[in-house]
Every structure is written in C-alpha cells, then in structure tokens.
Amino acid sequence: VEVKIEVVIPEKERSKEEMSPNGKASPLIYKVNGTARHYHLEEHPIASSHYQNPKGMVEASVCHVKDLENGQMREVDLGCGKALLIKESGEFHAVGHKCPHYGAPLVKGVLSKGRVRCPWHGACFNIGTGDIEDFPGLDSLPRFQVKIEKEKVYIRASKQALQTQRRTKMMAKCISLSNYNLSSTNVLIIGAGAAGLVCAETLRQEGFSDRIVMCTMDRHLPYDRPKLSKSMDSHPEQIALRPKEFFCTYDIEVLTEMQVAAVDIKNKIAVFKDGLNMEYNKLLIATGNTPKALSCKGKEMENVFNIRTPEDANRVVKLATSKNVVIVGASFLGMEVAAYLADRAHSVSLVELEEVPFKKFFGERVGRAVMKMFENNRVKFYMQTEVSELREQEGKLKEVVLKSGKVLRADVCVVGVGAVPATGFLKQSGIHIDSKGFIVVNKMMQTNIPGVFAAGDAVTFPLALRNNKKVNVPHWQMAHMHGRIAALNMLAHGTEISTIPYLWTAMFGKSIRYAGHGEGFDDVVIQGDLDEQKFVAFYTKSDEVVAVASMNYDPIVSKVAEVLAAGRTIRKRDVETGDMSWLTGKGS
C-alpha cells in the first residue's frame, strides 16, 4: 500500500500561499513575526528520499504505510520543506507542519477528532481541509492530497506551499465600490483589533461582496497588540496583522484616527467626533478597553505611560535603557513589561496592591513561583501598597512616593492597573450596557438591538464551559472568535460561540499557558515542581476542573482544552491522583 500526498492549490490561491504572517512573502518579515518566540527544538524529521520535477513540485517517499498508527502525527522532510503527516480513523491526511500564528511545531500539538491544536497558543486546524477553526492567528494551513498505493508513503507538493506553511482563505471583493455613497456602508466595524479584523475577513471569506468599513482611533492598521508588552521594541510594520495591500485587495476600508462619538440606533447612524455621519446596515462594536489612569498627584507628568500603541512601547524602551523604571500594577501587562525591561534598565521596581502577583488568576502558589522568578532577575517588588504621589524635577519624573512611605527613584513609570471597557459613547444609545460598562451580548454576539453586534474585550457573553454564565474574557484568542461568530451571524448563519478560552503570557523566555475560565476557583491542584518552573496547575470549583495553567509542560494545556471542548467534565479526583486516563477519554 502506498500513500501519496499532493498539494492542490487553485490558481487564484497560489499567490496567497506565499503570504507570511502579515501577508507578505518577505523572509525577513516572516522571521520577525513567525519565529523567535520560544526557541523550542523541533523533533528530528524523518529521513526521506526526494527528487524535484521540472514544474516546481517536489515528490518524496517518506515512510511505510504501517509506520503510523491511528491517532499519530509525524513531521516529514521533503528536502525543500516539511509537512505534517497524520493518521486518524484509518485515513491519512497531510497539512502544513507549522502553526501560522507564531510558527509552533504542530507535531507537538494535540490531535483530536479531525483537528490538530497548537501546543503553544491553542489555535486549531481541520486536518482534512487545513482550515483554521479556533484562534489565534488569521491564516489556515496548506492542505496536501493523500493517495494510497502499495506500501510506501509519497508526498508530492509545491515548493511554495512547503516553504510558506500558510494559506489565506479565498475571499470575495466588493462588487462596485465606486458606486457607494461615502457616508453609508453595509457593515460598519468600530474598532480595528483582532475582533474587528476577523469579522471583516470572515465576511469576505463567506462571499460577502458589499461595502465594509472599519474605523479606529489608532493611527495604524490592525496589529498584534500582545507584542506591545512582550516585544516592546517592535515597530508597527513588524507587528502588522495584514499589510496595506491586503486591505486594498479585498476592499476592506480602514479609517484611522477616527473616533465614534455616538450611535443613533433608530436611524442606524454612527456619529464621528469630527462631524462625519455614517449610515450602516449592520454594526459591530469592538472598541476594546481603555487603560485606567493613576489618581494620585503628578499622574499627568512627562515619562508616565499607559502602553496603548507601538510608539508608547518603543518610547518606554528607549527612555528606560540604563535608567530607573517603576511599574505600577502586577497585571499581565505590568509583569510582561517588567520582564522585558529587567536586563535593559538600571533598576525595575514593581508596585502592587495585592500580596502576590496573579493571585486571583493563577492562585497564591503559582503567583509566588512567578514572583521568585522575577526577583531572581533583579526585579524588586513593593507589595500591598499604592502610589501616593509622583514627584518631578525640571518637569520630568524623578520619584515615585508610596503610601507605605517608601520613595523610589524613577525616570520612567509604566501604569498597568487594569482597564475599563471603552463604551462610554454608547450610554445614551439604547444598547444594553451592564453596571461595569460591558456590552451584553448573546451566544451569537448580538446585542439587544437588531443588526448590532459586539465583540472582544468590551463584552460579556454566555460561556458554555461555565453553564452559560455571562463572563468577560479580555484575551486575544477570544477576540478572534468573537469577530468570527459576529460575522457569521450578520449573515444569518445562526452560529453560537462554544470556544474554550486560551491565553498565554511570556516572561524571561518562559511561557505560562492557560485554558478554561477559573474565576471563583476554590482550590488549585499542582503537579510538577514550581521551583523548577516545570508544572501544571488545575483550578477547581467544587468537584470540577474549570481551568488549567502550565509552564514547561506542553502540550498539557492544549490537551485539557480539547477535553473541555469535547464537553467532557474533568473531576478534581482525576487530577489529584495523577491518573491521566481522562485525557484519552477514559475518565468522566
């Protein structure tokens, strides 16, 4: 029996196959956006014999048909690139071997019921089509056709597909943009983050050919916002999610530095701060959050930053080099900034009201382990206190005074004390806003107003994992999924959200991965060694595991995410005993 794999690329998609993470073919940009995040060693590829034919294709014998058991994946080398060979339910499939998001080796991921989940950040891909089914990331995997002949496995693939390892889905274009009134659009998207961009792309992927307008207060096209605190010296063009040409090609209009001041739901009009009025048919509100400011004296001083833009992050790095930095707030942003600046600044001090960083999110034991890692990297903590005053000298920040009486030298101060939903402009709109300012939506991302949808950090939505409890999940992966669900339901697909929350944080070359929703957890079961920074923590509420976090324990978080996505319950006793049979479906 032979297995042959052949890349099938429609003519229209061949140019798209060449796109890098931000849509360009440049190897330099691919390196900036696609690798150098974790430096994980990939498994040694299996040796293969290969030859190239004259048509830019490569064909290789990669293994015997019996070399793979059901449920196994294998990375195979074709000489000019690699593919991921998969066997499930007696059938062979082949797709790209790297996650298009940050380049994780999918062979180290989790295979389950027709899809493979990335071991780093949880993106999911259909093994039959290569299509992305859960996020983060925008592109799908190239798919290779599989044929069985005799007892060897052959792969025949285009070199382009093997080298780019990504596929941008086919998209529609606007039928006749020149005929539209500039002051009206079919779909208006307020906000140009992950939710807004995925919504626009999904509409085009589903064949929507009417006008789409995105507007943003930012000066840039959509970019990879998590990099602002994880890779602070990245320039805007390096972290762009798509290049300018992409938006032109697919007729997705982006109005930058434009702020919506009000929404008239009766007349379906968005009123902009500069006086422009724009009519819409369908509306997506994806405005995200606004950082909280300090309330103390001196908060408006020069060199005090909320990091909202690439320019903010770049300027902080420049000013902090060999200087004294004070970070207020042990939030994800605050901790990631502290980690990034630790070996660049003269000193890094972190001020936090709680006793332990991440206590409410990761629990006290994990929080203390993280705190110890920071202290070992010269970060000084000032816990259970607040800032009472910022002092200046010659107009610039000089000292941060704490309520404990401690005075810290400071040339730069970064504020990371949380955020509030950017929904103030909706207060008189009639759109349902809860007491905390979040937009309330249903499982289809619909608000209480027909034709008005909301997505991302500014919403609360029913989370299936927690019995449809209304929650706010302000994370990158969830914003992507919100945008997709909103787009599908603008097109009346009736699709409900059912994704498992998945997030990560990166500090000192280490990543903590997290899946589930642990709000209100009452116990933490830890396996591994916190001191050795190799552990998995299971968060339980009553008798049920509601979330998991890990460091250096891949792919456990992705495995748990797949179990939860399948609707299976993980009991506390399952993880207390160390018996991992529940991971293979033998548990509850």
UniProtKB/TrEMBL annotation:
One of its GO terms (molecular function) is oxidoreductase activity, acting on NAD(P)H. The keyword Transport applies. It comes from the Eukaryota. It is found in: Mitochondrion. Residues 60-155 form the Rieske domain. Pfam families: Pyr_redox_2, Reductase_C, Rieske. Transmembrane segments: none annotated. Keywords: 2Fe-2S, Apoptosis, Electron transport, FAD, Flavoprotein, Iron, Iron-sulfur, Metal-binding, Mitochondrion, Oxidoreductase, Transport. GO terms for biological process: execution phase of apoptosis. The keyword Iron-sulfur applies. GO terms for cellular component: mitochondrion. Induces apoptosis through a caspase dependent pathway. Reduces mitochondrial membrane potential. Belongs to the FAD-dependent oxidoreductase family. This is Apoptosis-inducing factor 3. It comes from Sakesphorus luctuosus.
